[in-house]
Specification:
alpha/beta; globular; six-stranded parallel beta sheet; binds 6-phosphogluconic acid
């Protein structure tokens, strides 16, 4: 991660969410103006809930019918399960906006094996982006969180999944999570035009310091690096409390 210039600190998670909505509107408007559509991959977890609610309520969001939503990762549970990322995004965002069903690319978790589900998700992404050979799809925006252990999406520390170079999405089994998962891989994440990390809460302060200031961190979130893209790290004051010399809004 190379983010020294792109850390934005806010009083609380509501401030983080408001800024994320502003950036979403800017990035999506630009993408639609440039190429007629906007593609984003979303994460689950607690932090983005406020963002989803505010995005759903925003009057400035450009055409939902030109927006295509994917998932950065999913827990392998049915959509009605309270741990489902799709379920979470549906209840806080999708149910409140006019997005065509075909524009929502969820990860199937019912009546399918974990591996087959990952394959099918890869096919969906490939078909949509017209992915060929080694070229990685290029999302306009990928939204990520950071776990206390430094994981991001469902890429966990020390796992072989961090070494994946060719696949777009992979199955993940880890004792760090009660459920199996499916995640986008690092090459896809690192090919995005924009990445927004949303991080909140005092319990993230230690790992955030390690990721931002540690010179040799090899944690999954530290491996997110955009050669040709823009990274935003949006954090609240409690999460930023251990960072050296950070002022609000900086
Ligand atoms: C998930 C995520 C995961 C999340 C982090 C942070 O499905 O759990 O995509 O990577 O972003 O665990 O989660 P919080 O926002 O709850 O801290």
């Amino acid at each position: 991660m190379k983010n020294e210039d792109n850390i934005f600190v806010f009083d609380n998670k509501e401030g983080v969410a408001d800024f994320a909505v502003t950036q979403w509107i800017e990035i999506s408007s630009q993408a639609i103006a440039d190429k007629g559509s906007f593609t984003a991959a979303l994460s689950g977890g607690k932090t983005p809930v406020e963002f989803y609610k505010r995005l759903a309520a925003s009057r400035d969001t450009p055409s939902w019918d030109r927006t295509h939503l994917f998932l950065a990762d999913e827990r392998f549970v049915p959509p009605s399960h309270n741990e489902s990322n799709y379920g979470l995004i549906k209840s806080h965002l999708l149910s409140h906006v006019k997005i065509p069903d075909d524009n929502v690319h969820r990860i199937q978790t019912e009546e399918i094996t974990l591996e087959e589900s990952a394959r099918r998700y890869e096919e969906d992404i490939s078909r949509f982006f017209g992915h060929r050979g080694d070229a990685m799809p290029r999302f306009d925006l990928i939204m990520l969180g950071i776990g206390e252990d430094g994981h991001t999406a469902s890429l966990f520390p020390g796992k072989v999944s961090l070494k994946e170079r060719t696949r777009l999405a992979i199955p993940v089994t880890t004792n760090k999570s009660p459920h199996e998962r499916i995640t986008l891989t690092l090459p896809v994440i690192n090919n995005a035009r924009n990445i927004m990390f949303l991080v909140s809460g005092r319990d993230k302060a230690k790992v955030l310091k390690q990721i931002v200031e540690g010179k040799k961190s090899s944690l999954p979130a530290s491996r997110v690096y955009l050669e040709r893209g823009m990274m935003y790290l949006m954090v609240d004051q409690p999460a930023a409390s251990l960072l050296s010399g950070r002022k609000m809004g900086q």
